[in-house]
Amino acid sequence: MVFRIIQVVMVALVGVVMMSAILTGGGNVIGQTALYGMIVVFFVGLMSPKGGVLLMIILAGYSDMLKRLMVLETNISMFDLTYVLGMAPMALAGTVVACVVQKIFSGKIEKRDVVTFGVATVFLVIGAALGLKSGGGMRALRLVADYGAFSYLIFVLPILYPTRDEILKLVKTTILIFVPVALYGIWQRTFGLADFEHAYLLTGLSSESRQLLDLEVRPFSTLNAATSLTMVTASAVILILCLRRERKISPLLSFTLVVVFAMSCFMTFTRVGWAVLFASLCLIPVLRYKSTTFLMYVGGIGSFILVVLNADLIIDNLPHWQNKLYGKTEVSAGEGQGLRIMTLSDRFIGFENMKRPENWTPFGIKEEGARIYGLSDRYSTTFSHDAISGFLFKFGYVPLACGILMGLFFLASLHRAIFKLPFDQQRFCQLALAGIFGMLCSLATGGTVFQFPANIFFWFLFAMVLITIGEKPRPVEEGGKEEKEAVFGRLKPAGAFRP
């Protein structure tokens, strides 16, 4: 009892000191609050790992709204933005430290823990390398967080939520937390941005400031960009299907949520999300069989090679195809965004440059001022606007080949493990895997799959697969008969109708 009283007094004293520093510091109040908030959320994750994960999810959905509210104050700086965006990674960092300490002191370190921690560390190294290549500064920190920090979810989630039932409870909570995000995206498309959001874009501190030059601003809801909103809502649809498959939500609620998230995805008029959702749904039946899975890889690799070889022809024909899409009738600004394919030329320029032998260097292009992820320029031999050619130009074919070989080995092991599972677990893993591959399709347009907070949904899907593989088969009494199921319910024998 005395110890609890001491804890309460200490927390109160720390709170008073923090509030005094915030109010008398002279900087942006929200930014200063976020600075101390980073420390607080780290200790929340350290003392309560599950609480840290939940806090990270909430911050993933709404921390960007705090950035916009900073325009109500003065003295906005890039440091203030860093403090706000740093809270979610710090919450996860506390959780990771807690899980590592727990595993070390309990002595129950499993092979899966070592593998997932190693994979996450590899992504952290990649993020650090990308940060160094970007020239350092705030952009470097963001790349480290996007590519590296959140990958540790595949390490902590199987430890904290070791069964499908537990991880799906977290997924359901996550979906409900992001429902307002999807709804606000629909509101923005229908009624436009709020005044303070326009004021924030005018500061130039957001990458979405470029939208002010467009005919109609694409909605980005409470997130940092329209691409983030479209990726999050597209992946959320797959997560909802996973919930419904395990009967964690009712048919009516699942249908309503799918409509809300799919509509929000569509109304961003950002095609990468449309492609991710379409690809994910198409891959669900493909991944059910070994033969079609193999054909998927062969077809995907072959299609990419054909696109690279014919990139120049595609670029030359884009204006003609664009005129065909628009036709002779006028289109609205929103329809124009959805049908605008000329912006794809940036990606095809990168693919065209992959055909240049001088760009295939062992460890990246050393040319001074190489234009990678810069302004579109077909005559720049090192221009790139996709993750694949960009990685080749920055790091060379040796790291790229090593990454591809490691990825193929990992995927082969993953598929082998999935096809050995009982039918019920197989189908669940294949549904989640369809979402993973669908999100990876976005690599053809850039690294949006690893962009916060879309990366959280990506690693959630991955963790769900790993948890299911490591889970013991359910008894017949609990799991029911392992018969074939549809996504929205179990198939009934003919004549066995049940209302």
Keywords:
transmembrane helix; disordered C terminus; globular; 499 residues; O-antigen ligase domain-containing protein; membrane; two-stranded antiparallel ribbon; mainly alpha; 2 strands
How do the strands and helices of this protein lay out in sequence?
Layout: H1 2-24, H2 29-47, H3 49-69, H4 78-106, H5 111-133, H6 137-148, H7 153-160, H8 164-191, H9 195-202, H10 226-245, H11 251-267, H12 271-286, H13 290-309, H14 311-326, H15 333-339, H16 345-353, H17 387-395, H18 397-419, H19 423-440, H20 454-470, H21 476-479, E1 485-486, E2 489-490
Antiparallel strand pairs: 1-2
Helix pairs in contact: 1-2, 2-3, 2-4, 3-4, 3-8, 4-7, 5-6, 5-7, 7-20, 8-10, 8-11, 8-20, 10-11, 10-12, 10-19, 10-20, 12-19, 14-16, 17-18, 19-20
How does this structure look, described?
The chain crosses the membrane at residues 6-23, 35-61, 81-101, 113-132, 144-163, 170-187, 223-242, 294-315, 397-419, 431-450, 456-471. This is O-antigen ligase domain-containing protein. Keywords: Membrane, Transmembrane, Transmembrane helix. Residues 477-487 have a biased composition (Basic and acidic residues). Residues 477-499 are annotated as: Disordered. By secondary structure, this protein is mostly helical. The chain has a domain at 177-247 and 259-462. Helix content is 70%, strand content 1%. It has 21 helices and two strands. It has helices at 2-24, 29-47, 49-69, 78-106, 111-133, 137-148, 153-160, 164-191, 195-202, 226-245, 251-267, 271-286, 290-309, 311-326, 333-339, 345-353, 387-395, 397-419, 423-440, 454-470, 476-479, and strands at residues 485-486, 489-490. The chain has a two-stranded antiparallel ribbon with strand order 1-2. Strand 1 (485-486) and strand 2 form a beta hairpin. The protein is globular. Residues 368-376 and 477-499 have low confidence and may be disordered.
